Every structure is written in C-alpha cells, then in structure tokens.
Amino acid sequence: MFRPANFRQAAKALGQPTRKALTTSFFRPLSSTAPLYRKEDDKSKKDPLLTATTNAPKGTLEAEGQYARTDENVKIEYPDDEHMPRSPVVQGRGGMHFKRTLADFSLENKVTLVTGGARGLGLAMAQAIVASGSDLAIVDLNKQEAEEQAKKLVEQFQKENPGLEADQIPSVTAHYSDVSDPESVDTAISEVILKHGKIDHLVTSAGFAENFDAVSYPYDRIKKLWGVNVDGTYLFAIGVAKHLLERKAPGSMVMIGSMSGSITNVPQPQFPYNASKAAVRHLAASLAVEWAGHDIRVNCISPGYMLTALTRKILEENRELRDKWISLIPVGKMGAPEDLMGAVTFLLSDASRYITGADLRVDGGYTLT
Ligand SMILES: NC(=O)c1ccc[n+]([C@@H]2O[C@H](COP(=O)([O-])OP(=O)(O)OC[C@H]3O[C@@H](n4cnc5c(N)ncnc54)[C@H](O)[C@@H]3O)[C@@H](O)[C@H]2O)c1
Fold first, then answer.
1. Which end of the chain is less packed: N or C, by CB atoms within 10 Å?
2. 3-class SS at 101?
3. Per-residue pLDDT tens for 125-151?
C-alpha cells in the first residue's frame, strides 16, 4: 500500500528532495502524460515482425499464427463403441519387490473404485492399483469388457506374484454404470459396497472427447460431454464422500482431468472438452478444501497426449496430426498409459498424505511452453 510518510522517509534517507519538491519535480498531472512516441514516428507500423502478426488474415490456414490456431477442418473420427479397440493389460510393471521402496506407497487393505476402468488410461491405473495391493471395483458403461479386464488383471497379478495364498490375491470386480446418470451412479456405489464391504479410494477416468468447431457444435452433444466428464466426476465424488463421511474414514480421490483444462489444444477444435477438464481440475481443488477437515484428499491428474489403443488407432490413420502433436511436446513423444501408474499410486497412497487439491500434470512438458 502507498504510504506518503514512508515515501518521505525513504526519500530523505536517499538524500532526495522532500515531498513538496517531489510533487513539483517528479509528478506530472495525469492529463499531461506524454505518449511513448509520436504517431508520425510510430516505427512499430514499419516493423515487419510486428506487422506480420497483426496482418494475419482471418481464418486459419497459411497465415501467421497458424500453428497456434484451431482448424475447423480437422475432424477426428472416433469409432463407435462396438469398434473401439481393446486396451492390453500392461506387462512387467508389477510383481514382487526386490528393490526397496517406501511402505507408504502400498495400497494394501484398501478398496478402490475406478470409473472408466475397462479401457485406456483407466485400465492402466486400475492395474497399478491392484499391483499395489488394493482390491478394485471397475465401473464402466461397458460391463462385459470390464468383466474381461477384471479377470485379466487378477491373472496378471498372479503371474507377477507367484505362490501367494488365495486370500492374498486382490479381489477385482466389474460393475455397470453410466456416470452421467445419478441413479445409475448410486446403484453402482451400493453394489461395490455390498461386494467389497467399503470404498476407500476413487479414481474418475470415465470421459471422452470429440471435435466440432464452436459454432456448429450440436448443443445436445455439449450437454452429453459435460454430463459424462463433469457431472460424472462430481456424482461419483459425492457418492464416495458420503460413504466415507458415514464411516468417518479417511479417503483419497484422484480425478482425471487433462492438460486441455489449462491450454487450448491445436489444431483440433474441442472447446467443451477443454472447458470440462478445467471444471474437473477446479472441482478437485474445491472439494479438497471442503473435505480437508474430514481426512478426505482430492487431487487431479492432468495427462497430456497419451498413446492409448484409441489414440493409436486415430493417429495411425492421421500421420499429419500425429506429427503436429508430437512437435509440440518438449520431451518429443506421447505418453504411455503406464506413465500414469506411478502418479495415481502416489496420489492415492499415504506417500502423498499432505497433498490435496493439487493438479499433477503428466504431459511431457506440453503445458510449459
Ligand atoms: N488419452 C488421452 O490422450 C487423454 C489425455 C488427457 C486426458 N484423458 C482423459 O483420461 C480419461 C480416460 O481416457 P482414455 O483415453 O482412457 O479413454 P478411453 O475411451 O480409452 O476409455 C474411457 C473409458 O470410459 C468409459 N466410459 C465412457 N463414457 C462412460 C460413461 N458415461 N459411464 C461410464 N463409463 C464410461 C468407456 O467405456 C471406456 O472404458 C478421460 O477422462 C479422458 O478425457 C485422456
């Protein structure tokens, strides 16, 4: 705050003129502030670098700024559910520990619910959770795939941990839910509690993206996207929090946002997705504060471009888009779903006990430039 007395003292100490003298010699009346330069010698108008950026024609292509703009012509074809590629179970990441690490990273004796766990990033994070000793409930729109993956996760765990007794093998179950439907969410949560006896941790990975330019984006599609990405995250968070509050138990939640919650991706236009992920990030921060006094932590992971079975298929059909994306990532490559395994384990576990409301960007440095 400006304090005239302090200013006078400082001026005195520096041997500067007093306030009266300063007023006349240093201060100009506001109305007579001189322009930085006169119009006639405005060199900026003649500077080719400055004029280039201001002369860029409206529209998108072949113009200055083109690499930092969305292009309404870029359309990514997402396959329908029937043709969605399956995600493989990660090999060689879990297993018996021969290298020492902190016991705090363990998720033993916990029950974790992962939405969208049948595929992609949700599946890789689910696998990390099982490898870290937690029981798991996969909740997904696609129950059949969730059931198949649940079996594979247990098989992989047994392969990596031979010789364990049956009661040492994590219990992995599959459940149906449309995360955007409150009734369906409540039913799934009750079902999981019935099967596992409790829920300690939550990961919300169910979500999707699609591309339309803002003007032609069908409004019903916007509502659907926000319903899944935002409401779906909120509904599961509230449902699990109610259960934790009733049990007076601690818990940890990880919401899957995206770097798109902080930046605008190019060239594909996707404004409602970007907005939905900004909402997820702030949902995590807001709920973290609300529940901090109840020992319930809420954090967000914001992945960058990750090479899931789905993005691999899309980019194999669109090399130009792939090259453009990779050219914008400082580490020079897309992330693998496995790159989220450590991040989610850390944020769910006691190793991060003093971290809440954080946004952990796993994006190869994308958002730094
Ligand atoms: N893949 C990436 O590059 C990337 C980058 C940043 C963020 N993300 C985010 O990560 C999350 C997972 O993405 P992904 O790439 O693994 O996608 P994915 O399509 O491979 O998997 C999403 C899973 O969510 C399920 N799902 C979709 N809608 C659902 C609904 N209404 N109810 C219940 N389940 C539903 C799907 O059946 C599927 O199993 C999403 O929230 C996505 O926005 C992905």
1. N
2. coil
3. 999 999 999 999 999 999 999 999 999
340 CB within 6 A, ligand 1: no
| pTM confidence score | 0.86
273-290 confidence digits (pLDDT tens): 999 999 999 999 999 999
Pocket test for ligand 1, best of 205, 211, 325, 360 (most atoms within 8 A of CB): 205
Sheet holding 359-362, edge to edge: 172-176, 135-140, 111-115, 201-204, 251-256, 296-303, 359-362
Residue spans per domain, the chain: 104-362
**CA 179 to ligand 1: nearest atom:** 32
**205 CB near ligand 1 (under 6 Å):** yes
Q: What is the CATH number of domain 104-362?
A: 3.40.50.720
Backbone angles phi, psi at 347, to 5 degrees: -70, -30
